[in-house]
Structure formats: structure tokens, C-alpha cells
Amino acid sequence: MSDETAWPFAGRAEELTRFRRLLASPRARGLVLAGPAGVGKTRTALECLRIVDRIVEASGHGPGPAAGGRWFVARAAGHQASAELPFGALAHLLPLLDAGTDVPAQDRSGLLHRFAAALTTMAGDRRLLLLVDDAHLLDNSSATLLYQLAVTDAAFVLATVRAGESAPDPVVALWKDGVLERVELAGLPPGLTGELVGAALGGPVDPETLLTLVDRCDGNALFLRELVLGALDDGTLRREDGMWRLVGPPHPSSRLVELVESRLCGLAPEERALLELVSYGEPLGRAELDTLGDPELAERLERKGLLSVRLNHRRLEVRLGHPVYGDVIRAGLPVLRVQSMARALAESVEAYGARRREDILRVGGWRLVGGGGSPQLMLAAATSARWRYDFELAQRLVLAAQELGAGFDADLLAARLAGIQGRSDLAENLLAGLAKLADEADDDERRSEVAIARMDNFLYSSGSEESLRVATEAESRITDRLWRDEITARRSTILVTTAGPRETLRAVTPLLAGTTDTALVWACLTGARSLARLGRAQEAHDLTARGLDAHRALGRPIEWYPWFHLFNRCEALLGVGRLREAEELARVEHHAGLADRSPEAQACFALQLAKIHMARGRIRTAADRAREAVGIFRRIGRPMFLHEALHTLGCAFAIAGDAAGARRELGAVAGLSLPNMMYDAADLLQSRAWSAVADGHLPKARALCEEAAGLGLRTGDLVAASAALHNLARFGRAREVGTRLDRLAEQIDPGLVGPRAAHVRCLAAGDARGLEEVAEAFSDLGAGLLAADATADAAVAWTRLGHPRAAAAATRNAIRLADACEGAGTPALRSIAARARLTPAEREAAALAAAGHSNKQIADELTLSVRSIENRLQHVYDKLGISGRDELAGALDLTGPGRPS
Fold first, then answer.
1. CB atoms closer than 10 angstroms to residue 797
2. Is the whole-model pTM more than 0.90?
């Protein structure tokens, strides 16, 4: 990517279309591309020349920018070094004057004519197209010649100019007199920034990383390119879990430093000092500017574009003119200068009351560098950093608070931070000491806070048994009813993972009827999750609304954020097939998580989006969102959520036919070594079933679905049970599951379960028309992959019924629906003709053989003799009209219709 044209180009379609139109017009004289520095003027001009190249090559007159066709292309560029030399910018294109010739001023007109004629003569019988980059830096003579070439139609002129910069009068006259059209190039919009970075890196990019790059480049394409290259060079930008992400703040490349410093050169010492202060403390308010800076100096720098001053809700904010300026300036600050600025900024903000929400954390950070600060301030700053997921900063701040004597609250936060960052043994040692102090003081509040912290630490590390033991001990010692209720409510979070929805709901039902405050919030969280998995979506929706109201009324943070109620609501909508509502909610909350810089919210709703996209049949998109969730959950230490994200990603790989990828991700689930994760155990079994399908093991897949269905029915995870029974039918056992699924349809809210049960009934009966109606029902819900499967099933049924025209129509529809499913390959979508000809037993053996298993392995899998397998496969070859095993994959079409092989 060192060459500028190697960086992807996108987003200038309108400008290029305009250029093509001008090229085709005999009256057009050219185009001026104007915009601020770094917006991509030069690159857009080069893309315009590529259009000319293609025209030239198509004409058959030879390749290259200066040969053949209708056009002869010449290039020049303005530069400060040649701005004082007459014709300096165009000298390389012009004939040499005789040595010693002194051209008098009055003969300047003749010289212009001579040079113009020389340029047109150089073009021969073709029209001259002259590209002049940075035309605002032309010397006056070159500018005048350029104007003459354009106004006399001697050349088609393509020029770039920097908006806001002074330019020679002849250059300004090009658009002012209407000689050339002028186009203003705006900065990169956020969506295009993501497109460019993804294209440059050749793979999906974490949305948080894109947001960071969007903020840092602020629409400047050149800065974006250098930020990405710099981050690649220093390893800050890495590919993890199949997705590019920043693992630290991006640092400017050496080229970017040079570009910015060239803009800052020539500043007076006091101007540079003010820029340094703003770079370290931005945004500065009016009070800090008056105390530490100089408003008149700031106004002067604002006019130069080096500072940005604006009102934000009637509050003055002073920032650098571009975020990258701060990266460059801060990188060169001496340590002693940083310390003095940090101390001065902290004292200034504290003197005015530190009234903004973010002031506590800013002042705490400055105090770490500059010294000072009260224990209360540093503890408040540490708490703020913890809730922003900046655990490293929180650790430093809480240590400072402890050293200043913040006491029990600081010690408790330090222990929690140790547990969050994976140091669970240290956390338990610290918490055990705090529990002893709380018992000695006979303080129920502190006893409860420590007990809850220990429950969480055990739950996320050594398992639920220790967590339940701590809860039981706490309940035996705590006499305050509200605190006892909270322990009971928090116990329900353990039941979610150990017992499942039915028992969890039973445990919190009394609390929902008679408790308040934090205990009610926790009861709503686990109760709504349980209702969602029981398929009681409307009750779950109502409980999330109640819990959200109670949560917001607390006035203090708890371990789970208010948006967790919306996570549960999304789960409820997804479970009953209200997919469009679920997707809209998840998308809104995902954007909110990004805007709030909350990695946990981003990852949780990325996980929900992955599951929703899977349900809708967008398999590649589902995998991208699951990758996003996996990377974040790993980074912030959320093993329970990581567990779910990994098997969701594995399931996406499996449905896409990537058996190796599915095995890898499901192996990572096992590698977590988490104890008895009941809350998603049935879903994990189904992911493993799809992995078996990708490996050609349909019998194994069916066994796993049976296990998942049984588990879901026992624990109350009826949503998972209904999905598992439906998958069992899709894998060839429709006649065995219809009654069970019909019974579940009576217990789960209407939506997806009805079409699932109808699908099973029609499959068992071979009802082709009914299958097409089921496909329409799935389509109405937005479940594209299920619609494709049902339509493929209808094609098979029509074939068996002897209706070739209806079968052909259904096949076309199945392929059309499958094409929208981003590479999905389910058993139903594989060769419809083969499914119509083969028995279920023959399909099992054929799938295993096509996946590369030997006859002995197939015999062991199906508990048959090798001779029986040989005979069965020979029947398959005869029915499909193929000669042997090598042709099986093609005959079964294991890549799925419409999927790239």
C-alpha cells in the first residue's frame, strides 16, 4: 500500500460521472476539483485519468496516459518551490528558450502564444488533456498559460485546488468566469470510511475500530490512509478472530507526523504552547481557556484552522482543528511539560466545581500524572473508569485512592477489578478479608456487597457451587430484608446457568410480587430471560419494561447495565420469530453501544444480531457479527457470553459448509472449561448438530438434536426444544417429532412455532402445496433460510407426486431464496433430484461417502456391515447415474444452490 493508487478508491461516483459527461461534450473545457487538504482531490483526478486510459485503450491506439486515441494527456503540478519562477510548474512540458535570451515583459503575450502552440503541437492530431494538481500554487505565468489553453479550447483542463487557499487570479477566473466547471469534494462520510478500510485490509473490520478511525480521520482520506498504515506497522491494528481490530490507540505514521508538522511550522512559541495545552486537555471550556490560555491567541489559531471553537449546549468548547493534530502534538510533549499541564488543568477544573459528568474522570487522570487529589475524587474517577471498561486506568486510580485512604469502598472496587481482569484468586483473597471486616462490624450493607462480589467472582471463575455456597452463608447472616432479597435475586443469576428457565422463574416469582429497589431489578432481569426462553414473549416484554423503569430509578450503577433489559427483550422477540422487530431493536442498541464506547453493549447486541441474521438466513453476515462479539468478549473477560458467541460462530460456519471452521470454534467452547452452562446448553448441542451435518454425519446430527430437545423440555427452554425438534425433522425425522412439536406450539407464543409445526406435518405427509404455504409463512416472518428449505422440500414432494412443472417452479424458487442466504448449505438445499430419488438411508450413506469417509467408517457410524454399505452405495450410484464415489459430491451438490464452491 505504499503507492497512493494502491489504496482503495470509492465514493466519488457522482464526480466521475460528471467527468465522463464533460469528456463526451464537444463544448466542455474541463473541470476543477476543489476541497480541503487530504480530501482526495489528487486521487480523484487520477481516477479521472484512468477513465481516459480506458477510452484510449478501447480505441486501439495503444495503452498509456500519453498515447493513442482521441486524447493526449500531460501532467503538471503547482508547488511552493516553483511559485516564484515564471512557467516553473510547466517547465518540463515547454520548449527551452535559446541560451541567454532575455524575453522583455512586453513580449510576454507572444511567449504565451508560443508555449500554447508548443503544447498543442505536442498533442498532434489528438486533443490535449492537461492535469494540473495543486493549481492554487502555480506561478502567475503558468496560471495565465493554463487559463489561455482552457479559454481558447486548446486543451481540456483538469485541475485540483485547495479550498480556502488563495490562488493566482487566472486560476480563480477558470471557474469564476465559467470557463471550467467546479466541483467541491466533501470529506469522507462514515460509511465510506468503513468501506475503504475494509477493502484496504481485505476482510471485516470491527465496528468499534471503524468508529475510532472515523473519529480520528474526521473525513480526511489522506489521514485515514496514514493512520491505518501506521497502525499496521506498529501492530496496533491486528487481525484477531477473523476480524481486523485496534488493540490500542492508533499512532500516526512518520509520514503523517511530517504532514502535520509542516502545517504547524512557523508558529510562535506561545501559539505552540496553547496548541499543546489543548491537545492534552481538550475540550477546554471558557474557564480553563481564560485561566490557562489566551482567548485572543485562540481566536488567531482558529482563523488558521488549527483550533476549533464551538458552543455545546451553551458551553464553549475549544478543540484542535483536527483530531490527528493532537496525536502528533502529544507524541512530542516532554514529560515535565505534561506533568505541569496535568496539574494546572486539574486545579482549574476543580476550581470551577468539576460540574460536567466527564470531569471527574478527566481530573482523576490528570491527578495521576500531576499529583494531588482527594481520596473521594480518585475513587469516583476509578469507578467511572471501571464502568467505561478502562480497567487499566481504573486499577491505577483505585490504587491512588487506597494510598490516599479511601478505605473499604476502594478495597472492594480493587477486588472487583482483579476478578474482572481474570485474577480471581487474588480477588477472592481480597474479598475474604473484606468479608471478615464486615462481619466484625456487623454491617449488613457491607456484608451483602462483599457477598455479591464473591458470588460474581466464583460464578465467572470456579463455578456455580462456590457461588451458591456464598449466597447461602450470606442469607444466614443478613437480617435486613432488602439485602436478603437482593442476595436471593442474585442467586437467580446462578440458577440461569445451573438449572434453566423454569426453575429460575419459580425462584424469582415471589420477588416480583413483593420486593423493590435493586432486588426487583435483578428479579426482572433473570425473570425476563427465563420467560423469553419459555416462549412467553409478551410476558417477557412486559417484564423488561418494568425492570428498565426500576433500573433507571435506582440512581446508582449495578453490575449489569439498564440495556440488559433490552437484550432480554431482543431474546424474547427472536425466540418467537418476530425477527424484524428483534433486528431493529438490536441494531439500535448496537449503535448506542458504539456511540457510548461500551464494548460490552456492542458485543452483546452484536451477538443478538448474529443470531437474528442466522434466523433470517444471512449466514456470512451472522458470522461477521459473531466474530465481532467473540473478539470483544475475549478482551473484556466475559466467559459466559464468549461461550455463546463461539458456538454461534461455529454454527454459522457449519451452515455455510465450513466444517473445519465449525470444529475450530466449537473446540474453543470446550477449551473455556466452564462448568455446566445450562442457559445455552441446548443451543450448543444444536450448533454441534449443524457441525455434524457439515461433516456429513446426519445420524450424529439427529442424535444431538434429540438430546437438545430433551434438555430443553426438562429445563423449560421451550424455544430451544422447538428449534431442535424442527431441525430433527429437517434432518430426516419428520414423522417422529410432529406430535411433540404440536404440543409445544400450544405453550409458546404465536409466531415461528406455528409454521415450524406445519412444516413438520407437511414433510411427514409429502404435502407439496402445504410446503409451499409454509414457505410463504416463513418468508412473511423474514426467515429466509427456512423459506428456502420448505420450498426445496416442496420441489421434492412435487417430483415424487409426478408433477414436473410444479417441481421445476419450486426448484427455481428454492434457488432464488437460497441465493439470498449468503452461502447456506442445508440438507434440504442440496440436490433436489437426488433427494427425490434416494431413500433416507441411502442419503445418509451418500453424504458420509461424499464427505470423504471410508466404507469402514460409514459402517461403524451406521452400525452396519461393510458389505451392506457397499451395496447401499452401489444403489445410490445406479439411481443417480454416476460411476462411483468421486462423482458423489457433484451429484449431491454439497455446496448448495447459488453458493460459490
1. 24
2. no
